[in-house]
Amino acid sequence: MxxxxxxxxxxxxxxxxxETRRQPMPPRERLERVFQIENLTAxxxxxxxxxxxxxxxYKNLVTAIIGPSGCGKSTFIRCLNRMNDLIxxxxxxGTIRYHGQDILARxxxxxxxxxxxxxxxxxxxxxxxxxxxxxAWGLKVLGMRDxxxxxxxxxxxxxxxxxxxxxxxxxxxxxxxxxxxxRLCIARAIAVEPDVVLMDEPASALDPxxxxxxxxxxHDLKRSxxxxxxTHNMQQAARVADMTAFFSISTGEEGERFGELVEYDxxxxxxxxxxxxxxEDYVTGRFG
Length: 288
Description:
Elements: E1 9-10, E2 19-20, E3 33-44, E4 47-58, E5 62-66, H1 73-79, E6 90-98, E7 101-102, H2 110-116, E8 117-120, H3 131-141, H4 148-158, H5 162-165, H6 178-191, E9 196-200, H7 208-221, E10 226-230, H8 234-240, E11 243-251, E12 257-266, H9 267-272, H10 277-283
Parallel strand pairs: 5-10, 5-11, 8-9, 9-10
Antiparallel strand pairs: 1-2, 3-4, 3-6, 6-7, 11-12
Helix pairs in contact: 3-4, 3-6, 4-6, 6-7
């Protein structure tokens, strides 16, 4: 299932050796923007989680969000499909445009947003149903019942799981290994044909072999989807991401702490020639 790296480069710092694997990336002005995020501030009650975040996310790339715990990484990606709307006392300001449309506009259905912008969580969370029913569930809910068997097979194939489960589709999803369960959750997310897949620490609960399978899967899936991943693992970000955003924790005038976007650039540049000293300190292990 794994394949040899296409291109390997290494950071200049001896304290952190990071190998990257990707094709050379075109200049950003030639890339299609999926998200345009401007001055995004998100708060839980009176406390800001992130403040004044602005960046673009590009089509068919893997974008990694890195930074220390508490810097608002998960809050940020959950804003991209309005999942934070489900949290009491949550509020946000700023603009998130998805293919030019403001997803925060009053006439935009958040359920439709989440159907187009799927999500995979930190820990595998399969339903206590069969493998088949896990993948078919969203399809049935959305009325995508034509060629249901074919859609399930395609999703499991894209998630590199079909060959492992095709003879036991009626078995419980809970009988799968942790890595298989996470790939099943990815299959469930892509079965409804989203445009973007958000992944919040998708391999943090997995062993190294399962993690390698998830990383290879992301590398393959970006041909069809745009992927945004939150990760604490800098080596993982360097291996899978085309673009990387580094968030850090800042302190306001009244002592409040909030997440701040420090630097956003091509992954190779973030890890070999960062523009901000805080980024360099983080990726070389001197901070965080």
